[in-house]
Here is the input.
Amino acid sequence: MPGFKLVAVLTLFIAFSACQNEKGISFRLIDTDTFHFNNFVDCNMAEAWIGDTFRIFPGKYGEDPVWGAAHDLKFASGRHADETFSQPAAAYTAPLLPQNAAVGQAGLHGAVWFETVHQDSKDASGKTLYAIYHNENYPETLPYDSVTGEGYIDRHWPLGLTERITPAAVCRIGIMKSIDGGWSWDNRGLFLEDKQPRMILKPHNTSKTFGGGVGDPSAVAVGDYLYLFYGEYGYPGVYDSSTYDPQLERGGQCISVARIAISDLDDPQGKAKRWDGSGFTADWDGIGKPVASLQIPVSEGGGPASSPGGGFHWGPSVSWNEYLECWVMMMGRVEGQSWVGDELYISFNEHKDLGTGTNSQAWSKPQKLLEKPGHVLWYPSLQPMNTEEDIRSKRTSLRVGKKARLFFKYSDLGKYFSTYIIEFEKGGK
Here is the structure.
């Protein structure tokens, strides 16, 4: 394992005052030696303990006419998180994944990234897993079907992230299942999606990000439900170029939440409900409302996702902190046309039961965790370490303690690594 040394305690020992909560949570970042991750990461780190084995599932898989077909979704294993994260690329195994269906036929379309793995608590072996995946498609891979309303019309379509003339992708969220600890997977269907009427088209969509959709999720189980925190990038209504309102778009975007009964994970499509402002009552493909406290005000640079000048938080990674006894959310911030941003943020929610009242919305205002000028920072997450307590408790990125490693991707460098440990402190009321 990479050793670490306390080089300097950053001045970023932030008493939680700007985002004060009842417990007065504070945190600090501690410099460590660089902990290199040796394989491809372009998503949240999905992971689980299979018996005494810690297993991770990074990477991308499937058809992608813009970036090229991908076969990088692989898994690595170890005796604990540090050993697993240190594995060389040659130690990764490609699982058996469902093949893409032909265009126009039912099945898996586009590329997928595993973002969270939910482990079935009823399976004592730990081998029954549900992967919540980010899925991207284009009008070419998922053309519009007037019968189902699924797919996209290649008309006035916005441009994507590449420097050549290519279309923007649309993201949605689905579920796969494994009963053998992640060696093979079966596609169970969609969790959430935004359909064609909500796509933001030319001339207004000039951000070079998404045409719309939902993606970059993080899911946590509470009671009988799986709660999904995700990025909302579509228009909160029917997009019409003649009546388009940028502030209406901004108001319907940022990080949102939906939930699905755990008993519905084997057949999820149509079963999830989005938060609509007062409860989980909006349909899986309907219009919900984002978490208001996580939105960036216009006065602080907030704006619509389709605008090059729009600012919004994205890429949530949610964990239950057993020391603080509260939820912690890590996130990035978009500040430019091509999904750039050099800052990471953190937010807290003290309500363990996310299903009661407005508990799922009770997140503190995001507070800056760190800034790396000149870099592009994506996919922050808190990870367990090689401590006796973390191993004994079988902690993952979904459940951490007083200390955790902070990993994130330097997208401009194409590298994913850690140079900090984060330490939390409880405060008095």
Q: What stands out?
A: Residues 14-424 form a domain with the Tachylectin-2; Chain A fold (CATH 2.115.10.20). The longest helix spans residues 246-251.
